[in-house]
Each structure stands twice: as structure tokens, then as C-alpha cells.
Amino acid sequence: xxxxxxxxxxxxxxxxxxxxxxxxxxxxxxxxxxxxxxxxxxxxxxxxxxxxxxxxxxxxxxxxxxxxxxxxxxxxxxxxxxxxxxxxxxxxxxxxxxxxxxxxxxxxxxxxxxxxxxxxxxxxxxxxxxxxxxxxxxxxxxxxxxxxxxxxxxxxxxxxxxxxxxxxxxxxxxxxxxxxxxxxxxxxxxxxxxxxxxxxxxxxxxxxxxx
Length: 211
What we know:
It contains six helices and seven strands. It is α/β, with parallel strands linked by helices. The chain has one domain (2-195): Rossmann fold. A seven-stranded mixed sheet has the order 3-2-1-4-5-7-6, with helices on both faces. β2, α1 and β3 (44-47) form a beta-alpha-beta unit. The radius of gyration is 17 Å and the shape is globular.
């Protein structure tokens, strides 16, 4: 199956996907993309703008995963508003652009968009909430529980998380890079649901992928 992994980071969501798929990852930061490539040498890694790449290449893939930047939507950011040095930001509307675009144009793909639970009411109702994250998709993702998300708050830059460590890499803000990862078990769970031969949420019968 051809998979597009957008805003790939160091590939937390991809960790348990195995090596039988043809995976293209897009990451804007050169240094983070280099770490991803070391972790997953068989993947095609593109350093570039994931938002634009989706627009131009979405038809080429069976399954699309997008994790647009979450900082401007985060409840953590909003909780700082009483601080004297608080610098408010507009929510980054690329998140909503990508959901609307995929809903309208990617009906022959299976796709999922991931983000944090925002400080405001989501502009588009999510498909499901799993492990600190909201997911929008065009296939069914039943809600189940994942255990480990309380450990995220205590992660330090030198720690490992989900079996991933950055000790051997010179990167600024390792703690944030680790915290940005999606739990690999969540990533695998969602990919497994995408592969299932079920009915898409918009009522279109899903094609049988070669997996």
C-alpha cells in the first residue's frame, strides 16, 4: 500500500507500520527529517512543505496521514493567557483547510488528520478522540483506550518515549520533538482500521488495498 505521512516528525505514528508498505514522509525541518531517515531508511523522505505536497500529490497514495502543527490550537497555549508576556496567535487554519480538502477531493483515498484537542470548539466534528488527540477520517475508527499518555508530561529531552530516544542526536528542544510524537500503538491501530474492508463514512465502498 502506498502511504503518505505528512508532517512526519521523527515518525512516532509510523513506528509500528512495518516495512511492507511504500511510505513517503514529508517533513519541513532538515534535521528532524534526517533523524526520520535514519529510523526508517526504506521510506522516501522529502524535506518540504507538507501542506503544498498534499495538494499536488494526494492522488498518488492509498492512505494519507496528516499531523499539521498543533501549537496554535493547543489548550496549553491558551492556558498561558494570564501571563504578562503572553503573545496570542491566530489558530493555524491549515488544519481545517486540509480536512475540508480531503473531504471534498480524496474520496478514493483513505485518510486521517490528527491534532490536539483544541482550546476552542472544533470547527469540524472529529471522527474520534484517542489518547490526547482528535482524528478526522473518512473511515470508521472505533474508540478504544490507550494507557500511557500520563507519562507525556514528565518527558525530558534526554528521555526515551515509546522506545524512541534522541540521545545520539544534536537537536534543539528534544523534549518537544518527543512530545510531538503520536503513540505508535495509536498509529498502528488507525492504519489497521484503514486497511479493513469496511464502508467509508461518506458511504462510498472502499477499494481492497494490496497489503
